[in-house]
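User: I'm putting together a teaching handout on how multi-component assemblies are represented. Below are the sequence lines for each component of a complex, exactly as they appear in our records. Could you produce the 3D structure of the whole assembly as structure tokens, so the students can see both representations side by side? Please keep the chain order the same as the input.
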Amino acid sequence: MTISTTSFNFVREVVRAESAIVLEPGKEYLVESRLLPLARQAGHPDVDAYVGELSTRRNPGALKLVVEALTTNETSWFRDSDPFTALRQSIFPTLAKTRSHREIRVWAAACSSGQEPYSILMTAQDTPELAGWKIDMLATDLSQEMLDKAKAGEYSQLEVNRGLPATTMVRHFERSGLNWKINPALAAQVQFRQLNLVRPFPPMGKFDIVFLRNVLIYFDLATKRDILRRVRQVMAPDGHLFLGAAEMTMGVDDAWERVPAGRSSVYKVREEQPTCAR
Amino acid sequence: MTTGTAPDPALVHAAFEQVWGSMLFTAFEPWPADAVPELGPGVQAQIELRGDWNGRIILTCDTEVATQIAGAMLGAPAEEVLPDDDVHDAVGEVLNVVGGSVKGALGGVMSLGLPGVTEATSPPSPDSSIIISWYGAPVFVEVVPDAA
Amino acid sequence: MRALIVDDSRAMRRIVGRILSDAGYEVLEAGDGQEAIDVLEAQAELPALACVDWNMPVMDGLTFITEVRKRPEWRSITLMMVTTESEQDRIVRALAAGAHEYLIKPFTGEALMEKLDLLGLLPVPAGDLS
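Assistant: Of course. Below is the structure of the complete assembly, with chains in the same order as your input.
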């Protein structure tokens, strides 16, 4: 059984509006299979009934689940807000006391269309302790298409509406036709590079901060463990790793320790590596 | 008198496309070149742009299509019968959002009027319109500069 | 919590109203700035939030925001423009007049929720919607 054209079209437009990702005809199976668990959870016999209710209720929380089920890319600015608050209030000020060369190295390891690295840079600019500092920002993604978009720094009206405070928007963006273009000086601070997390990393040096959010969930346990092990090797000894809100290192790679940071938490490499289990 | 440049059809097209997807949850389909657009008794919505360029964007479609557009925008259940006022209001708001997007993209000093919606009296000329296909029915969009 | 939606379009009030009531708000409505002032004056309990369109008959949204900011007893209301006006200088003007946030039409429901999150006005934190 496949879903009706009406259901598919509705889901396609919701996903396009929220994420700029287009589900081409032929992806009905994908929609059906990804949404069936959500439909069942919501008490519907099939996806059509579920989408029917979605299209009349338009509950943003439910629509968000649909978009997340169908996309692997993140599109919000300052996503989840807490990590950025933690950067501004504690992590950046702490690093500012310990880095005599006035430079902080950051890696956004799954940068998608660029909202995350740009949000980190904007946060650094809002941190008084970092006035006059350089942020050496590397942003990588598997998709060259996403990297090209990130580098161009041009976003639709729908994209700039997502989580970007109005004051930040007028400070860092200029109107470009129907779209908004990020300040070129900000874009020039990011080095964009294609990188597959599953493969050995190229030489990159050590990072003070790594964002690896909402990407491990797509890998199996062995791959997760391998990625976290290799990320450890590119961390400065007092470096901070950010994972997605629903992700953790516990039980995957216990060489990491979870430390509280504001309302959320970050991960640091344990000073003493745990020995093998007895 | 009109001094600035009229909005480019590609811009108007793109503004509709954005509104169609995000407000109506419907893919924007251009009218097929080989089909003849026919219009029944209809609804006409217009919005004025004033400033560097002076003119109007006008949307014309038949009553049934207008009702469906309003229903899609509101997420109205199929059994809900929308009164004419609500249909006119919804179609007017669609055009208001398109008008604002177009105005913002044009830049310069411009202001936007309030949308007006009436019964359509005469069908627009297909030659001077962007025509959108609403599930096989035509929606006419015209960009009309003020007479000099 | 209560929210006031000020928009001359009934359709837009219904759309924004549904999102806000799903988020746990009790929704009040007004069709223009003057009506919104009348609604506020009649309330024993002020809304925490007002979503305000710009272009409206009688009194526009910018004037309404300016009027609200003149009244100390209405200081507690968080003001968000929700409008198709999208030039940079319009946003700056609205913020200067006292708007706390600015959401440009067209927007998606999630964008509205994220703005509420920014304003600390989301009864349920964004991450916990499931």
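A couple of points students might notice: The beta strands of chain B are 29-30, 42-51, 55-62, 110-112, 116-119, 130-134, 137-145. The mean pLDDT of chain B is 90.
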